[in-house]
Design brief:
The chain has 356 residues and is α+β, with helices and mostly antiparallel strands. The chain folds into 2 domains: 13-198, DNA ligase/mRNA capping enzyme (D-amino Acid Aminotransferase, Chain A, domain 1); 200-339, Beta Barrel (OB fold (Dihydrolipoamide Acetyltransferase, E2P)). Helices cover 17% and strands 33% of the residues. The strands form 5 sheets. Strands 3, 4, 5, 8, 9 and 10 form a 6-stranded mixed sheet that branches. Strands 1-13-12-2-11 form a 5-stranded mixed sheet, with helices on one face. A 5-stranded antiparallel sheet has the order 16-15-14-17-20. Strand 14 (200-212) and strand 15 (215-226) form a beta hairpin. The radius of gyration is 22 Å and the shape is elongated.
Amino acid sequence: MDLPVMPPVKPMLAKSVARIPPGMQYEAKWDGFRAIVFRDGDEVELGSRTGKTLTRYFPELVAALRERVPERCVLDGEIVIAREGRLDFDALTERIHPADSRVRTLAERTPASFVVFDLLALADESLMDAPLSERRSLLVTALDGVTPPVHVAPATTDIEVAREWFEQYEGAGLDGVVAKPPTLRYRPDERAMFKIKHERTADVVVAGYRLHKSGPVVGSLLLGLYDGTGALQHVGVSAAFSMQRRRELVEELEPLRMDDVAGHPWAAWADEAAHESARLPGAPSRWSGKKDLSWVPLRPDRVAEVAYDHMENGRRFRHTARFRRWRPDRVPESCTYAQLEEPVRYDLAEIFGRAG
């Protein structure tokens, strides 16, 4: 491979802001695997955000990119999987599998798409120092008429349209809006763009915690919600605390600490089969490897308010929730899925039809 921009390249990143800023180019925030695509003739490489290769996990994308994008180019975008008109991140994570046979099976069963939103090189020219507005124009021209599973991400400079997208696109499983200065040069691994994500709050049961890697202080709180059958389901964690606050939490939660997990709603957490019918902490995963998944059980008596952006398949928090406050006025049994706001569904095909 001999391109003007060579792998590995770490993608340009975005920092969170509360509101959509004016005077920008706006795009949807896709919920998938960020990837830099390098194509030089028959050679295609998919580089991850960390610089490691994703190529072997998405053979169907490699073939599609070889057929659909310019012969020599470097593209920045997102690998996504769409099912039933919305993005499915769980299906995407399943694609990272060590067995080649499983990779091939999943490539047929849950094929991925690639959404392109930036152009880093074309033919013999690096575009890293070109302003975003120029890169966008060249991208739209270079991929004019491209067909699925490769898509050009819709973009607009109209802030009112961006606000509409922010409200509508969540229903298709997207994550918010990204705002990019039109004069921005490509700056790898720098938070030079802006992301605006949905934030909601929920009252949850704090039913346990994991210790911090540094010692006997709280690393993360384990959060639960009651489902329609009255079972407490593990829905995520809250983990962003100062070291002082981690120490304080150990003392605050000590009266709730259970010496034995027996009698706890998640008592079967160590039984792999139990995870098939319930959401429990410590689910076995190839992502966890040899990581210690043990946790300290607490009587599920304490309620906390947390902030979250959105739910994954309506079952768990997609990202780490942010602790807001204790809610002594709420009883744990009132912390159910019914309190959660459900976004209005929006067909992903409508979004792909707006590129330009």
